[in-house]
Automatic annotation (TrEMBL):
Its EC number is 3.4.26.1. It catalyses: Hydrolyzes the peptide bond -P2-(S-farnesyl or geranylgeranyl)C-P1'-P2'-P3'-COOH where P1' and P2' are amino acids with aliphatic sidechains and P3' is any C-terminal residue. The keyword Calcium does not apply. Keywords: Endoplasmic reticulum, Hydrolase, Membrane, Protease, Transmembrane, Transmembrane helix. Residues 60-163 form the CAAX prenyl protease 2/Lysostaphin resistance protein A-like domain. InterPro entries: Rce1, Rce1/LyrA-like_dom. GO terms for cellular component: endoplasmic reticulum membrane. Coiled coil: none annotated. This is CAAX prenyl protease 2. Its main location: endoplasmic reticulum. It is an enzyme of class 3 (hydrolase). GO terms for molecular function: metalloendopeptidase activity.
């Protein structure tokens, strides 16, 4: 289930670093448009008083702690080990996120109840949310299998909840569009370049899920080596 000490610190730092590289463009955009938000984020990391204030904010706790921990625990640590022996690791990486995406459909009922938009807009938004949560779920499932730890997916989930979906349309209309789009492109390029090296299983010790499958006679070399 990804609870172990071996390779803990690399598993906590490297996947988060990889995800921050992917968000290089949005981080640049945040620093240009809302420097106070970026400064507040740094204060949370560096100042104990800011942490104490955040820990009393129920919305912050839900988005940054409770949701990432519980969702990764259920959909990665619990569901992946059950699916993988039946489907193999590759199909499990893409099947598990579908359940993760469907789990976010409760937002439809919330929006319909409070009439926050038209029915068509609500369902279109839900389809879009399902798509990117499924892609994100596949990414964290990949991290869980390659690192053998739950901490990396949880921290990446918390970071992505803080950042939100990249405001690509706003970047295209930004006064500093060229350097910003260059940051987006550089982030995606470096992410693809570093995805395999920074998730190399050799950095994290033995991988419990891969070992379990090997004992069952199912070898998944591409993901486990």
């Amino acid at each position: 289930m990804g609870f172990r000490l071996e390779g803990f610190f690399p598993a906590a730092l490297l996947p988060l670093l990889l995800t921050m590289i992917l968000f290089l463009g949005p981080l640049m955009q945040l620093s240009m448009d809302c420097p106070c938000d970026l400064a507040d984020g740094l204060k949370v990391v560096l100042a104990p008083r800011s942490w104490a204030r955040c820990l009393t904010d129920m919305r912050w706790l839900r988005n940054q702690v409770i949701a990432p921990l519980t969702e990764e625990l259920v959909f990665r640590a619990c569901m992946l080990p059950m699916l993988a022996p039946c489907t193999g690791l590759g199909p499990a990486v893409f099947t598990c996120p579908l359940f993760f995406g469907v789990a976010h459909f409760h937002h439809i009922f919330e929006q319909l109840r409070f009439r926050q938009s038209s029915v068509g807009s609500i369902f279109l938004s839900a389809a879009f949310q399902f798509s990117y949560t499924a892609v994100f779920g596949a990414y964290t499932a990949f991290l869980f299998i390659r690192t053998g730890h739950l901490i990396g997916p949880v921290l990446c989930h918390s970071f992505c909840n803080y950042m939100g979906f990249p405001a690509v349309c706003a970047a295209l209309e930004h006064p500093q569009r060229r350097p910003l789009l260059a940051g987006y492109a550089l982030g995606v390029g470096l992410f693809l370049l570093l995805l395999q090296p920074l998730t190399d299983p050799k950095l994290y010790g033995s991988l419990p899920l891969c070992v379990l499958l090997e004992r069952a006679g199912d070898s998944e070399a591409p993901l486990c080596s």
